[in-house]
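cron nightly-structures :: item 1 of 1
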Amino acid sequence: MANEEILKDDEMVEYDTFTYELNGKTMEWAITDEFEFEGKKYIVCAEVVGDALSEEGLYLFESLSDDGAEITVSNINSEEEYDRVVDAYCAMSEE
């Protein structure tokens, strides 16, 4: 996992970043948040575009491991699990 300074709201912010293939394209991702739900760890990410975060929206991945140097993530394949995770994250964000 790398640390990278990324432009957000006209200020440079440091994020943990990693690369991951999505839809056949290898992309760089910045971790904007992480949380646990139903015994699993999830990360909220935004695609890194140039030196900024994409405004296309946030993505949720299940975090399988993080040994401090490398992160392993997985797509959330079950639509039901994805919906529960989104609802839980939205509820946590509102608090």
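cron nightly-structures :: done
The mean pLDDT is 85.
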